[in-house]
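[agent] plan:
  1. take the single chain provided in the ticket
  2. run structure prediction with default settings
  3. attach structure tokens to the ticket
  4. add a short note for the reviewer (M.T.)
[agent] executing step 1
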Amino acid sequence: MYTSDIQIRVRYAETDQMGYVYHGNYAAYFEVARTEAFRKLGINYKDMEADGVGMPVGELRTKFRRPARYDDLLTVRLLLRQPPEGARVLFEYEIYNEAGQLLTEGHTLMVFVKTTTGRPVAMPANIQERLLPYFSEDEFDSPVLPTPGAIPPDAPAPAAFRK
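[agent] step 2 finished; step 3 output follows
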């Protein structure tokens, strides 16, 4: 399992009229956590995209337990509980306040795609090499993700990923 923590201070512009973090901002917090986790591993989104591979969101889930408020210092924890397989990787998130209270949970299912076609492709080898050491052999049987090669190369791209 791989985990990575980052901290984000809530800006006034990120709150709604009630003083809570507006729900749409959590997707951006998740993105910051993913980008920084990859950066810590030596993986650069810009390089991946320059190589013709994108990683759009295929699914986003957020569960709110308590509100975050202006000026809160949040810890966003990214968790990879299972190894990525094929073209998909499931990122899970937990957001805590300074008191250690769990405020928000969520996940994003990301899909590696060829940027010219929007079609799923296998995870780039350099990314796989950086992630796989964090997983033991018994973690490779994923109950959520398909087995490697389960997405046929000629499968149509999901509508959301087509150009």
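[agent] step 4 note for reviewer: The CA atoms of residues 91 and 142 lie 13 Å apart.
[agent] ticket updated
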